[in-house]
Specification:
- The structure holds two protein chains of two kinds.
- Chain A is an alpha/beta fold.
- Chain A has helices at residues 4-29, 60-75, 95-108, 120-133, 163-177, 191-204, 208-211, 226-234, 246-258, 274-281, 283-286, 307-319, 328-347, 353-360; strands spanning 43-50, 83-90, 113-115, 137-140, 156-158, 183-188, 212-218, 239-243, 264-267, 290-293, 389-395, 400-408.
- Chain A is 43% helix and 16% strand.
- Chain B has helices at 2-14, 21-46, 54-71, 76-98, 103-123, 125-128, 149-173, 175-185, 187-192, 197-223, 233-246, 253-271, 276-290, 294-313, 319-338, and strands spanning 134-135, 225-226.
- In chain B, strands 1-2 form a two-stranded antiparallel sheet.
- The longest helix of chain B has 27 residues, at 197-223.
- The chains are: A alpha/beta, B mainly alpha.
- At the A-B interface, α1, β2, α3 and α4 of A face α1, α2, α5, α7 and β2 of B.
Chain lengths: 415, 342
C-alpha cells in the first residue's frame, strides 16, 4: 500500500499534467465562428426552458401553445424556407436547472437564441450568462420590470406588460376618473408586490403621497389577511388596490364584502381569473372589480364572430387539441410566438444574433391578431418593453366587460 | 478503496481535456452532488439515521456563500469553509432534539425542515434577497492559470470532493467510525460498550450537514445564483434517491448517486418529452431491482465474487477477500436498517 504522502505527490503530478493537456486543447479549439450557430439553409434552432413539471407547471401550457404555433408556421413553409426547430426543456421552475438546461441549449444544442424562458427567478439565473455569451434571451415570460435594461443587459428583452406598467395605468385611470380618491393598497411583501407599488406611485406622480392614505402588506406565509382589510376599511379609503396572488385575492374580496366595505376595486392581472379567484370570492362580492386586459378572451361572447379569434380556435383544434382554448395562457403563448416569427422574418437572411436583437429592438406598431384593438407592440434601442398598453375591464357579476380607451404606461418605468 | 480513490482522482483530473465546457459543468455538478450525498451516506448508511431534509443544509451552505461573497466581499474560499462550519453547528443543534425521534419519525421531522426552507428563505428577504435571490460572481481563475472558469470550478469541486472523501474514509475507519456503525447495528450494545450514543448521533448529524453545506456552497458558486425555488422539498428527496441508488452504506456510492441525479433526469427528457418523470421512475425501479444495494454494492459484490473464485483456485486466502467480506457484512446490516428484503 502506498503511503499517504506518496499518494499526494502522485495526485499533484496528475493535476499538473491534466492542466497542461487542458490548456493545449483549449487553445486548439478556439476558432472564430463565421456564422452564429443554430442556422442552416433549412433550419433555425430556437431554444427554451419552461416548467412542465413541479409547482409552477400550470404555466407550461404557454410554451406548449408557442411550440404548436411554430409547428403551424413550419407546415406553412417556415420562415424564408427555414423550418423552426423548437427545443424546449423542462426546468421545473428551479433556477439551477434553468441554468443547466440553458447551457445545454447554447453549448451543446447550439441554438441561435433562447425564446420565452419562463419565470422571474429562472431568468435571473441565466441573465448574466446570456449577456456574457451574447445570446438573445428574447421575450422572457415574467412581469418583473427589470428585463428592460438595454444598457446593462442588451441581449435580454421582456414581452408582456410589466407589473409596473399595469399599476401605472390604474393610477392614470384614477387621476382621470375618480375625483376625491382615497387609496388603500394591499400588497404582497416581496419584489412582485413592490414592483406594483412603485408603479402606482410613479403613475400618481406628485399626488401619490396625498392620495394614498393606507398601505398594508402581507407575507405569502400568512394564514389570513382579515386584519389588513379591516385596517384599510377603517382608514376611510374609497379605492382599493388589490395586489395579491390568487388565494389572497379571493380572501380579500370576500372579506371586504363581508364587512360592508364597498370601494372601487382594482385587481392585478395575476389574479384576474374568473374561475380561480372571482368564483370562490363570490360573484356578488366581485361585482365592479376592475382589471387590465391586453389580449382577447376567447370565451367572451363579443368575439364570437371575430375572424382572429376563429383562426385562433381553429389553430388550437388542429395543433394543440389537448390545450384549453379559453385559457388566456394559450392565447398569450400563441401571440408571443407570433412576435418571434415576425422578428425572424424581419431579419431576412441575416440571421446573426446581433441582427436579431437589432430587429427585436426596432418593432414599430406591430398589431397581433389576438391583441385588443389599439394595443401595439413597439420597441426601440432604448425601449425594451414590447407591450405597455392595457384596456380596463369591469366585472359585471358574470364576466369582464371592456370599457374606455386603451391606456399606455409611456415607458415612465425606465429606471 | 485507496486504489479506487486514486483512479477516480486520476481520471477526474484528466477528464476536462476531453470535455466541452457544458460537459465540464455537468461533471462539476456530479462532484457537488457527490459531496452532498457523501454527507447523507454517513448519516443514513453508517449511522442509521434518516434525513429527508438535507436540502435545508444545502441551502444554508449556498446562502452563506452568496451572502458572504456578495454583501461582505469575503473571498469564496473562506465562504466555503464558513458554510461548512455553519452547517456543522446547525446540523449538530438540529441533531440534539432529533435524538428523541427514531427511524420514520426522524424522517418526518427532517422533511418538515425541507418543506419550511423555501418559505424561511423568502421571509428573511433583507438577507436572502427574497424570491429574487442573489446573483453571485463566478470565482475567477487564480494565479493566471491557463484554464477556463468552468474548468477551474471543475477542479475546485473535484479537489474538495477528494479531500472530503479521504476525510470520510479516515473518519469511518477509525474509533469514531466504529462507534458510529455500532450505534446503527445495535444501539444498546454500543452503549453498553461505553459509546456515548447521544453525542455520536448528534455529531454524525452535524458532520453530515457539514458535507451537504459545503456542497451547497460549491453549488452556489457553480451556478452563480441562489433563489428559494432551488431548495424545494424535491431537492431533499432527490438527495435521498441519489444516496440509495449509489449505495447508501458506501463512500464511493456518493459519486455514482451524484451521476444518477445529474444525468438521468436530463436523458429521461431526451427519451420522452411528454413523460420524463415516468421514464425517471422506471429507471429508478430498474436500478433498485437490479442493484438493491446500489451501484457501489453491486461493484463490491462482483469484486467479492471475483476474489472468491480466485481464492478457490489459489489455496492461500489473501487479505483482499477478507476485506471484501467485511464490506459485505457492512452492507448487509445497512440493508437491515433500510428494512429492505434481501
Amino acid at each position: 500500500m502506498p503511503r499517504p504522502e506518496k499518494q499526494l505527490a502522485i495526485l499533484r503530478r496528475i493535476a499538473v499534467f491534466a492542466l497542461g493537456v487542458a490548456l493545449s486543447l483549449g487553445l486548439a479549439c478556439k476558432s472564430a465562428w463565421a456564422q452564429d450557430p443554430g442556422v442552416t439553409a433549412t433550419e433555425i434552432k430556437v431554444g427554451n426552458t419552461a416548467p412542465y413539471s413541479g409547482p409552477a407547471s400550470a404555466y407550461g401550457t404557454i410554451l406548449k401553445a408557442a411550440g404548436a404555433y411554430f409547428k403551424k408556421v413550419n407546415d406553412e413553409g417556415g420562415i424564408n424556407g427555414r423550418k423552426i426547430n423548437f427545443i424546449s426543456y423542462d426546468d421545473s421552475y428551479s433556477p439551477p436547472k434553468t441554468y443547466e438546461m440553458t447551457r445545454k441549449l447554447v453549448e451543446q444544442d447550439h441554438v441561435l437564441l433562447d425564446f420565452g424562458p419562463l419565470g422571474t427567478p429562472c431568468n435571473t439565473a441565466i441573465w448574466k450568462y446570456m449577456n456574457q455569451h451574447q445570446v438573445p434571451q428574447l421575450f422572457v415570460y415574467t412581469g418583473a420590470s427589470k428585463w428592460g435594461d438595454p444598457k446593462g443587459h442588451p441581449w435580454t428583452m421582456g414581452w408582456q406588460p410589466t407589473y409596473h406598467a399595469e399599476a401605472v395605468i390604474w393610477a392614470h385611470y384614477i387621476l382621470g376618473h375618480i375625483p376625491g380618491a382615497k387609496i388603500g393598497i394591499l400588497y404582497q411583501n416581496d419584489d412582485y408586490g413592490k414592483d406594483y407599488l412603485s408603479g402606482v406611485k410613479d403613475g400618481l406622480g406628485s399626488a401619490a403621497s396625498k392620495l394614498i392614505i393606507k398601505e398594508q402588506t402581507y407575507e405569502v406565509t400568512d394564514p389570513t389577511i382579515d386584519s389588513q382589510i379591516v385596517n384599510l376599511k377603517s382608514s376611510g379609503a374609497n379605492v382599493f388596490i388589490n395586489i395579491t396572488t390568487p388565494k389572497f385575492a379571493a380572501m380579500a374580496i370576500r372579506k371586504a364584502y363581508e364587512i360592508g366595505w364597498r370601494p372601487t376595486q382594482f385587481l392585478n392581472f395575476v389574479s384576474a381569473s374568473v374561475g380561480t379567484v372571482l368564483k370562490p370570492a363570490g360573484f356578488q362580492a366581485s361585482k365592479g372589480i376592475i382589471s387590465g386586459y391586453f389580449l382577447k378572451d376567447p370565451s367572451d361572447p363579443r368575439w364570437a364572430n371575430d375572424p382572429a379569434v376563429k383562426e385562433y380556435l381553429a389553430f388550437m383544434r388542429k395543433y394543440y387539441p389537448d390545450g384549453n382554448p379559453n385559457d388566456l395562457f394559450n392565447v398569450s403563448g400563441y401571440s408571443c410566438a407570433q412576435t418571434m416569427v415576425y422578428v425572424l422574418k424581419q431579419c431576412g437572411n441575416d440571421l446573426s444574433r446581433a441582427n436579431i436583437m437589432r430587429r427585436a429592438a426596432n418593432i414599430k406598431n406591430l398589431e397581433l391578431p389576438m391583441m385588443l384593438a389599439g394595443i401595439l407592440i413597439n420597441t426601440s434601442p432604448t425601449d425594451f418593453y414590447p407591450i405597455e398598453q392595457f384596456q380596463l375591464a369591469r366585472f359585471d357579476g358574470q364576466r369582464y366587460e371592456l370599457f374606455g380607451q386603451v391606456y399606455a404606461a409611456v415607458s415612465s418605468h425606465q429606471k | 478503496m485507496r486504489l479506487g480513490l486514486l483512479l477516480v482522482a486520476g481520471v477526474g483530473y484528466l477528464l476536462p481535456a476531453a470535455l466541452s465546457s457544458y460537459q465540464t459543468f455537468e461533471f462539476t455538478q456530479v462532484f457537488i452532488y457527490a459531496v452532498a450525498l457523501l454527507g447523507l451516506n454517513i448519516l443514513i448508511g453508517y449511522n442509521g439515521q434518516f434525513s429527508l431534509g438535507h436540502g435545508a443544509f444545502y441551502a444554508i451552505g449556498a446562502y452563506t456563500t452568496a451572502i458572504m461573497t456578495t454583501r461582505w466581499d469575503i473571498p469564496y474560499g473562506w465562504a466555503i469553509i464558513a458554510a461548512g462550519a455553519l452547517s456543522l453547528v446547525v446540523g449538530f443543534l438540529f441533531g440534539l432534539p432529533a435524538l428523541r425521534f427514531e427511524g420514520l419519525y426522524l424522517a418526518l421531522a427532517t422533511f418538515a425542515l425541507a418543506l419550511a426552507t423555501p418559505q424561511v428563505l423568502k421571509y428573511f428577504d433583507t438577507w436572502t434577497g427574497g424570491s429574487q435571490g442573489i446573483v453571485l460572481d463566478k470565482p475567477s481563475v487564480p494565479l493566471g492559470l491557463p484554464i477556463s472558469a468552468d474548468q477551474y470550478l471543475y477542479y475546485l469541486s473535484l479537489t474538495v470532493l477528494v479531500i472530503l472523501l479521504l476525510l470520510a474514509h479516515n473518519l469511518l475507519r477509525g474509533r469514531a467510525g466504529r462507534a458510529i456503525t455500532a450505534i446503527r447495528d445495535n444501539p444498546i450494545a454500543a452503549e453498553a460498550m461505553g459509546v456515548n450514543a447521544a453525542l455520536y448521533k448528534s455529531l454524525t448529524f452535524g458532520v453530515s450537514a457539514m458535507y451537504t453545506g459545503i456542497a451547497g456552497a460549491l453549488g452556489a458558486l457553480a451556478v452563480a445564483f441562489v433563489a428559494p425555488d432551488t431548495f424545494s422539498a424535491f431537492l431533499s428527496i432527490n438527495f435521498l434517491v441519489g444516496s440509495v441508488v449509489g449505495g447508501v452504506a458506501s463512500i464511493s456510492g456518493a459519486i455514482f448517486g451524484g451521476a444518477f441525479i445529474e444525468f438521468v433526469p436530463t436523458y429521461a427528457q431526451e427519451i420522452s418529452r411528454a413523460a420524463p418523470w415516468a421514464i425517471f421512475g422506471l429507471t429508478l425501479i430498474i436500478f433498485m431491482y437490479v442493484m438493491p444495494t446500489g451501484v457501489a454494492g453491486l461493484i463490491r459484490r462482483v469484486a467479492a465474487a471475483l476474489a472468491r473464485s480466485m481464492a478457490s483456485e489459489q489455496p492461500a486466502p489473501d487479505s483482499q477477500t477478507a476485506a471484501a467480506e467485511a464490506a459485505e457484512g457492512n452492507r448487509g446490516s445497512a440493508r437491515a436498517v433500510l428494512g429492505k428484503p434481501d
